[in-house]
Protein 1
Amino acid sequence: MAEITETTQQAIDYSQRIPNNVDLANDRTLQRALERWQPAFLGWWNETGPVNTATLQVYLRTAISVDRDGWANFGYVRMPEYRWGIFLTPRDESQPIHFGDHKGQPAWQDVPGEYRSQLRRIIVTQGDTEPASVEQQKLLGATCPSLYDLRNLFQVNVEEGRHLWAMVYLLHRYFGRDGREEAEALLQRRSGDPNNPRILTAFNEKTSHWLAFYMFTFFTDRDGKFQLAALAESGFDPLARTTKFMLTEEAHHMFVGESGVARVLQRTCEVMREQKLSDSSEVRAQGVVDLETLQRFVNFHYSVTLDLFGSDISANAASFYTGGLKGRYEEAKLGDDHSLNNDSYAVQEIENGKIVSRPMPALTALNARLRDDYTREIQAGVDRWNRIPEKLGIPFRITLPHVGFHRKIGSFAGQYISPDGRVLSKEEWERQLVAWLPSDDDHAFIGSLMARVVEPGKFANWIAAPARGINNLPIEFEYVRFD
Ligand SMILES: [Fe+2]
Ligand SMILES: [Fe+2]
């Protein structure tokens, strides 16, 4: 028996099957763990990944190393044959832990016993979002607005799959048996399953059409970016280096979202200008997304994503920071003492029926701070969107709702705040809800626009063509082959 195992293992070329820079070929324990996990991963992918895609050839980017030329290799791939690799940005030995109680000590190459369960929880929570989004998006291929968009969807899907691999690598390599059990559980939970749901609420919502997909990749993948950026500061070096590499891929996901919404906006504004329309029902009659509906989707996706940052005031966030497990966004660029024991940070909350801003201990306010950093970047993206109606002479502008609008977590949970930041009664808030959040009707209307367009270079009526193709290829390139 032992001999057979030996032969089988020698026959596998790990750098080919699982591209990696973690010396997998010489790590027997890790090989054994991954050999069990990989078939389960493929089973999960086939069962709950993008439907009817096993035979498609997709022009995809595959990371085969971490150098400049290696992380973005383009070519046709059948998705089940995608090579999900394990990559960490190279180690910088000169970098000590640079925040919290362990500031100045060498970064940990192994899990410190005192932080073991906290680190495992952080990795599992991040890891759980990756397969969740693939599950949320599994049906979208059937209604793609173009081959270009279909390819981008699949690129996002396989990379979220790779991000799961990245987290599972950490669990397998550093957490022993309970790490392996957590890795299995990551393949067992299902987005939206009432019996065994994904960990975070936003990842149990449906992504039932392409507008939701673009909104999700703009708003929610960017939460991913900020969480990964905070973990990239971690004193646990393998986590920092793994998340740093994941950030290179995340940029494309956010591009898909921002440019997707921009193209919807572009198309609508063009039609409005050509036909001299302003009324939303007339705009809808032209088969494009009216701007009021677009605004409601912004309100929804922004508010549910804000909940992902957790409670504004959090003892957990403080202990992650003082323990050196999770830093702030761009920690190294901040010019304070990186321990924050004597600092404060302004957090909004409700007092006597009014929204007030109050200084709180900076350590417990770290979730609110990361969320504020996120909002700044989101606002910049919204400003870029608004150049489109401005250029086309349409007076409408997209706005972000108040941070307290439609929140289920944090100091505004259970409160009724309007998008413009007024504290309302429950009745008043509910009366106006249909103007603020997407209704079933809105979803049905967007659903009615969805139709499959797969002729190279053609786009559905409700969305403009992108400015350029992928990897400098023309827009009419055959990004997905069906034979
Ligand atoms: Fe991801
Ligand atoms: Fe992503």
Protein 2
Amino acid sequence: MSVVVNGTTPEPAIRIPAGKTSWIRVYNDMPDQNTTMHWHGLSQRTAIFSDGTYFYYSHVGLQAHTSSGSLIVTDNGPPPYRYDDERIIEFGDFCNATDASIEDGLVAHPFVWSGETHGVLIDGVGVATGSIGGTAGCVLPVIDVEPSKTYRLRFIGSTALSMVQFGIADHGDFTIIGADGQYTKPYDVRYMQVSTGQRFEVLFKTKSKAELGNQTDFVIYCNAAPIVTTAPATPPLTFSNVTYNWAEYALQPLKPNDFPTASQVTRRVEIRNRQMSANNASVIWAASGLQWIDTTAPSGKPYLVSIYENGPSAIPNYTNALANYGWDPITKAWPAKIGEVLEIVIYNQPSIVENNYGLDFHPFHAHGRHYYDIGSGNGTYDPAANELRLKGYNPVLRDTTNLYRYTSAQTVDSLAGWRAWRIRVEDAGVWMIHCHILQHMIMGMQTVWVMGDYEQIASIQHYDAAGYLEYGGNAYGNDSYTPSYVHQFS
Ligand SMILES: [Cu+2]
């Protein structure tokens, strides 16, 4: 049992034009579950100016396993790159268990791991590990293309857990032209590497009829083809287990994007992530000592609702947060002021569960305003050394990038790898920064950022927001009445 939208997984693709107001009405037809829809990569109160590939999914529990679909913001005018047609390639994970049973295990005492994925899906189709395509109803994914054409492939990482490497046998490079909804300068790669939460746009040329000869099917990765039902004797493509160098310090914006210099940075915050044991043998992830799950907010309500209802007292205390790794001990949230330019350094630290000192990789995603990704590396972040690597390099704006695993284990208190971002704090609101692996989120690898003061956050008047502040409010609507709404654009 899992959650679907309009009867399908992936959910239907949504295409909306840039610069226009589009209505998307979300109905929850599940009598026994809450749901949310997260418009991944978009700051919902700001206008979108360019084409991009986004996606939308439930942000509740493990519903996003199946409740996920592409969201394409179409260009306002001709795109900056020429291509004949496009295809969406959305990766998903298949687990041979219900969402509820996996989730129960993740929060159980003692902890029960979900196990690894049973199959990586392309656009909802795939064959589970140990099964053979073409038998017993197992269908292999097929991407239909025509000869002599250039395709814009829109890759969407909507797996729960898996990092996916992807290639097509006997073809040339993919040319990356976009990442996380932002156009980039062209950058060639031999194969794709996509973590959960990430999107990439690439140009891909198919062969001409003459080049094809009699061969019209090509293996995607391995084990897969609609006519070929057994794996090739030798893998048709060579990938690398070294994941941490893929397209690092490489993707630059097509147009200048106001990248902040080191001297413009006003504050550096570290988020130190580690796996820990909690009471009763459960296993959690904590960020600088704070495990954040749905019940962590002290008010028991969403932060925005609490801010509207309680006013400035619900804003996390900035001074106390600075004295406590960046997060306020009362509200369990990370405050920032509008106008700050943050440098956020995300660290891996070895697990202290059963003294195994293990490490994992984590695709970190930020809601709201995109960030400038200033790179990654093993060990401890060295600002001066990194500044040399940034010379002549202008990072593209991103919303999901990997904190990698460089070694399997290290000594207990070491800093075992980093990812760093710069963020211009300009969008007032409550935004999450979290690992995008669904299992890790449920185990607590999430942070909540409150950006701006009360007046800035509550700039939509209370009477206009009132319908959002409780279940069944007039902003929700139902079968018998249309929700009331506030125009965000003139
Ligand atoms: Cu993670």
